[in-house]
Amino acid sequence: MQNQASPVEILSPTIPANWCPTGSWADVFNNYQTLFLNNSTVNIPGLGQVTAAQIATIQQNIQSIQNQIAAFAGQTGVISSITNGLGTYAVSFPTAMPTANYQILMNFIAGSTPTTTTFNWSLATGTQTTTGFTFYSNIATATDKITSIQWSVFSIPSV
Fold it and tell me: Which phi and psi (to 5°) does residue 62 adopt?
């Protein structure tokens, strides 16, 4: 598939000496396109050497890149049912991540000014999968005033 030695060519029919369309420039260009460009061919040196297997591999690579881009964009959700004290929260993704190796970000949302400002959470061992994760958090709803938890996940594709 190394075809940089020869340039791509557009092969068009020869324009006859007596071709002289009339009208506006748009009419001239449209007439040229209809008569000549539409009947042209593109010659890409080496293109005939590309196999069906190579095309399939290229398509798979493109799909993989699209999946990685989608994972990089990330996913976000909100947990609005908060447990007083130690709570277990299960998160399910709307769309599966490409791998279970992703980053998790938690934002604790307070309905009013909390007495404490440090909110901890921990991932439950073995629960980080492509479809979700489970975490624990100890929230004192009376003093922490947490009304919801916003989670975000994202994956930076490996190069």
Answer: -65, -45
